């Protein structure tokens, strides 16, 4: 499993740092996040569906997509934000790693398989969770 490094920052009021183990558990509990990468037109952060297993984030995109052109082999970020509706409480997770293209999609256990249109070629990517940080957000 890839190693984890956490950044040391002084959190702002109402924000408490989360340990890497908690961050990994929250990452594994969700299925949609934002992939950040640099394209020919600047920084992008786009929503993607993903799965996690063995310290990696797995996702796929159409092979003609901008992600397929710029993310493979590049340092990318992956972000999750969860907010409770009324309470303004929640958490944020930030992951950094290098996106690795895969020859074929891995078998990942999941109760809800993602639908994929017939005939659309996909590029599968794997992002090792080499850096992970997170904060819990409390209501003021």
Automatic annotation (TrEMBL):
TM annotation in the entry: none
Record InterPro entries: Pyridox_Oxase-rel (IPR024747), Split_barrel_FMN-bd (IPR012349)
Region annotation (Disordered) ranges: 1-22
Biased composition (Polar residues): 1-11
One Pfam entry name: Pyridox_ox_2
SUPFAM superfamilies cross-referenced by the UniProt entry: FMN-binding split barrel
Protein's UniProt name: Nitroimidazol reductase NimA-like FMN-containing flavoprotein (Pyridoxamine 5'-phosphate oxidase superfamily)
Lineage: Bacteria, Bacillati, Actinomycetota, Actinomycetes, Propionibacteriales
